[in-house]
Design brief:
Elements: E1 3-9, H1 19-33, E2 36-44, E3 60-65, H2 79-82, H3 87-93, E4 100-103, H4 109-113, E5 119-122, H5 127-137, H6 141-157, E6 166-169, H7 172-181, E7 185-188, E8 207-211, H8 217-230, E9 237-241, H9 246-252, E10 258-262, H10 266-275, E11 276-281, H11 291-299, E12 302-305, H12 307-310, E13 320-321, H13 325-335, H14 342-352, H15 357-368
Parallel strand pairs: 1-2, 1-4, 2-3, 4-5, 5-6, 6-7, 8-9, 8-11, 9-10, 11-12, 12-13
Helix pairs in contact: 1-15, 5-6, 8-9, 8-13
Length: 372
Amino acid sequence: MSKKLHIVSFDIPYPPNYGGIIDVFYKIKELHKLGVEINLHTYICNHKKRQVELEKYCKKVTYYKRNKILSSIFSVLPFRIKSRINQKLNSNLKDLNSPILFEGLHTIYPLYKFNLKECYVRTHNVEHSYFYGLAKSEKNILKKMFFYLEGIKLKKFEKNLKKAKTIFTISPFEQKYFSKNFKNNTIYLPAFHEAKINSNNIKKGKIILYHGDLRVSDNVKACLFLINVYKNTSYKLVIATSVKENLIIEQVNKYKNISIKQIPTQQDLNELFKKAHVNTLFTYQKTGIKLKLLNTLYKGKFIIANDPLIEDTGLETTCEIANSKEEILKITETLFQKEFTDKEVEKRLKILEPFSPEIAAKKMIEIIFREQ
């Protein structure tokens, strides 16, 4: 019997150039490889375009308009849920006999609204905690208030996850939270990602690399901290992002040893990974697993990370841990005296074995289609 699955994605999962979308795209790719027939439902808004690439892995891709109108902010529903309510999507899902996988809490309105049968949810964060973290990092008072209120709404709405047959969590940290708070089945499945090692014979790079989406306030705060760490040193810090941020540009322009590079494609980032000797990954909020950590482990050399980023990921031994300016500079000095050898690569790949996307996809198929 053919395995048919409908996936509802919170955003167009191509190109896979940020956080949760990386998980969605490589999940689709792996499931397709293992013979699952996928019907993808996704949202389109702003400058986004339909992506032909997705048709290689999906039998059908249906796009729905996301209504990011101001009045949605004042709804009792969280903005990220209210803005995704679409009657055409509701109609397409409510009479299905095939299983449905909702990507993220923000896509589950049809599950909340209708008595859907075979429904599964992939959680990408403990969403209210994530928004409380954004509120803490944000300096703009209106955005801070919006993030905080959104967190309150998401916390209240989260109870609707109990309607799912299974919750697939993305990290050990999330697994603890959801298994404690929900009686329905919760299964930890590591994040899906490219899992492709960078062909890189350069044992010693010349730069320090930070990469992140600068539309996210936590990343901006982390970036400003790292600029302060390296600004009066001889090290060359490169900040890579697909979206530039004026505050960061203003700070970067003050120091000759710090620069900012745009990375419109994964290949652009891969080239920077080859040049970097040290990758700095820093966050002020502990949520799920940072997909950029997995990406860096496969593509980059040495990594310096702080506790909130690395704790409860199962990857603690792959990074040098530093939480202060003094600790970061001390470890940076030590790492620039070392080469990133083939032995380091082998050790890292061994630790990454449980994070195999193929193993995760097989486990997901076994759970979703166990009664077929």
